What we know:
Number of strands: 19
Order of helices and strands: EHEHHEHEHEHEHEHEHEEEEEEEEEEHHE
Structural class: alpha/beta
Amino acid sequence: MTNGTGAEVVVDLDAIAANTAVLRERVGRPLMAVVKADGYGHGLVPAARAALAGGADQLGVAVLAEGLALRAAGITAPVLAWLHGPGADFAAALTADLEVSVNAGWGLAEVVAAARATGRPARLHLFVDTGLSREGATTAEWPELVAAAARAQADGDVTVVGLWSHMAYADAPTHPTIGAQVRVFEEAVAVARAAGLTDARRHLANSAATVALPDTWFDMVRPGIAVYGLDPLGGDAADHGLRPAMSVRARVALTKRVPAGAGVSYGHTYTTPAETTLALVPVGYADGVPRAGGNTAPVLAAGAQRTIAGRVCMDQFVVDVGDAAVAPGDEVVLWGPGDAGEPTAQQWADAVGTIHYELVTRIGGRFARRYVGSAGAV
């Protein structure tokens, strides 16, 4: 460790590979492993290699820069990048053999222009908004986008290889929006098929749909958080045969014995109920530890789960360990798989009122990242 605090995020690449294999076997069809946002905080390139080692057929990223970084690292698997504003460097994307998605006519026009400038036809996905009201062409706009894409395909500027959308409520498997979105998606696909886009692969299922909604699997699934071993339904990942790949730990920097009634951290939101030992942990909200974790979030310290005492600060937080033996250098685990009694990311999410997606993607700062396992190693 080189950061001086002993703080590290440990990523188990074999767990990522095994999770991918479990999901791929479950669905029995192509799987796109989503590695956007620096591999959901697990590391873009190592996570991508581990997912491919586990049987992923394709990789998914949000922005072009992520796809270009995969190519720069020597990854040759198909990669889809889907979130673009006007002026995106589609020429670089096509030169790097990235697949791209559009959801509006102006985006298609920019892709066509890049294809003509580079002489490299684009492998294109068309995104339809089926009810999330976020990305995607509306159902009113969809026929025009499809017709324009069909013309571009006939001209040799693009090959439409994907038709897709995204779920709003897949983490609530009985929600009525699910059936409604599937129906809208099927209608949109029928419009595209009628326009001659007969070979495009249909994909709708995110992680939650991949584990819970077989009717959404279509031609390919697109899991993200499940690849990293976290339950998209908010329960126990082991129920789906998944194992969390991330452990977050630090080392005690200071201990002190204080009397009953000592106020702890800013605002004295915690007061010691008795004479006790306090352990200082040198990570804080600048490193992605939620400030909301004060007096709510659990850690494994001195052999037991204990709640953070007082406010999480920018660089540090405090744990009240009572009369337990603790010394500087002792390990404190924020979250991990739970095997050794440590909290899980789901426990943290429940404690601070968020989702584990947010926790794993924002943890960083002065945490060093360390990889274990051999999956995808070069």
